[in-house]
Amino acid sequence: MSTSTELLSDQLAATTLLRFATAGSVDDGKSTLVGRLLHDSKSVLVDQLEAVEHASRSRGQEAPDLALLTDGLRAEREQGITIDVAYRYFATSRRRFILADTPGHVQYTRNMVTGASTAELAVVLVDARNGVVEQTRRHAAVAALLRVPHVVLAVNKMDLVDYRESVFAAIAEEFTTYASELGVPEITAIPISALAGDNVVEPSAHMDWYGGPTVLEHLETVPVSHDLTACHARFPVQYVIRPQTAEHPDYRGYAGQIAAGAFRVGEQITVLPSGRTSTITGIDALGESVDIAWAPQSVTIRLADDIDISRGDLLAPSGDAPATTQDIEATVCHVADRTLTVGQRVLLKHTTRTVKAIVREIPSRLTLDDLSQHPDPGQLVTNDIGRVVVRTAESLALDAYADSRRTGSFLLIDPADGTTLAAGMAGESFATAKAVVDVADEEGWDF
Questions:
Q1: Which residues contact 200 (CB under 8 A, 6 or more apart)?
Q2: Does 254 have pLDDT greater than 80?
Q3: Which of 9, 26, 201, 238 minimizes the number of CB atoms within 10 Å of its CB?
């Protein structure tokens, strides 16, 4: 009983939060690594472990298959693969964690984009027997595009290559060279065996040549910055509140979640895309008036002037407002089964605003083997990464994705049925942009 009390106390004492995602090619051992992390860090409930042990015995396995702790779909358990993104929450005495276990199959790369979009660290697994493969490169490219600041290369199944240092060193060098060319700022390589538990939570007794941290130790100590108040202040409006009651006859407030930065009473703001200006006269948070609010708080902002503001407008400090544009150049990860083609009509969703748009150009598609650009492919298919130029019907206030992951990202949506076509990152990336070329539109969407 005392052990449970101490564990709860340790979890409550953990104050910092790390969001991280696992990635890698199929059968590299992602789910087993996650299961080992949860099991060895004492983050698995007794009934969960009993269920895994029962399922493992029914499949003829003597030892519990820890991958079953995250593979929850029936199809996943039957095939022994990960299909959907599995989110898990656990804590140690040093930090709290939100983990996204993402699929390895090529056709599920779109799920990896989802899991890594909010991650501050990505663990990319590599099978020590196979080394770096195409899907490893694809996931490294996605992590770089999504500006994940920390990447861990976990060279798994070291027990199957006799824990040889030369195997680990060769894979680490190849991956580090590739990821560095993508612009990944920090890469940490760790040799592990998720099945045996080597260097996952406890140091390995079989690799005395390795003197670095275990996976858990690195996750607990990697520096994480949550200071969104240092970013450009941005407030996408979600809803206009006008109660028009006897108690609040003239109340007009603009509700939403602060995407970045901080807002203060008395501060002059600019409403985008209209460009109108006003002054903040009040901020309501949790039913009380406050003088200052910061990301990611959900608040209602009141202004001195009655301005035509609706869902999709963006409030920003007048001295630090982003430029508005109808021409967006970006890198996209294509996630739909249907193609994205030049001249195609789409909807573009940016924060709370959705507008009509046309794909004016697809300048290039990234070749993952050597990071070369295939010029003018004409279309993007499922899991392609490429550059696009999009013209919108209305002006949008986008930041560069390098400056803000929240206000520099967008989705391209099929207007016919609402299917998400691509996830976009505005501005420059490791891809090379080309000049915009006009594309005639025959159906009235020429902006």
A1: 33, 36, 37, 40, 192, 193, 194, 214, 215, 216
A2: yes
A3: 9
